[in-house]
Amino acid sequence: MKKILVSGKVEGIVLKSEKPINFLGTVDKKTGIISDENHDLYQKSLKDIVLVFPSGVGSSVGAYTIYSIKSNQAAPLAMICKKVDLTVATGCALANIPLITISDEEFSSIKNGMKISFDTEFNQIHYQ
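RE: above sequence
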């Protein structure tokens, strides 16, 4: 595990994107569904999954989108990125969504549909 930004203990199924996510412009605040038809996760729900993506992009207001999807029970269980921007870090901190960064090699090894668990207290991450 590279770096813990928001701690937590999580077990869930991976939903992975190869593209950065603009939370303000791409994610529906009420449903947590990706609404940008040019995104590789178009029409996928972020609810109750472990979201793996390279980084966030776009406006800092996207942090409130992350908070909103959590308030609407439509948020991911956790987020894992290669690089964290201020929007994702702030949004996860506000919404108390566990957030970690990982190396490029670890990112490449994670596949859609994998089961993943991590516990930041013990600095452990497991893939199945």
